[in-house]
Amino acid sequence: MSNAGGGRNEVDPRFVSLYSVYNMSFPTKAVLFHVYTSISTAHLAPFVEQIRQLVTPLTNSSLELFDTSINELAPTPSKFHYIFNMRDLSRVYCGLCQT
């Protein structure tokens, strides 16, 4: 840690040794497709074949919408609430499973 001053306080090294840093990269499109296709397939299993055939187009369109919203609606100082993550995509599938 750095020296105390300028609003910084020194942290005891014994305290810092109790923490670990983990890094997890964002999943690839193939992984996201597999995860959300599996969720949709399991949920739509009791439905008729015409509905079950919509799993792949539904997953593709939701992932495309998610990518578009991340790329086109980037957060700015005036629109700082434009933060999209996987939780938003999971909420879409949670809502689909409740229908």
From TrEMBL:
Cleavable signal peptide: none
UniProt-recorded Gene Ontology molecular function terms: dynein intermediate chain binding; dynein light intermediate chain binding
A Pfam family the protein falls into: DYN_lid
Domain of life: Eukaryota
A GO cellular component annotation in the UniProt record: dynein complex
Span of domain Dynein 2 heavy chain 1 cytoplasmic ATPase lid: 48-98
GO biological process: microtubule-based movement
Name of this protein: Dynein 2 heavy chain 1 cytoplasmic ATPase lid domain-containing protein
Native organism: Allacma fusca
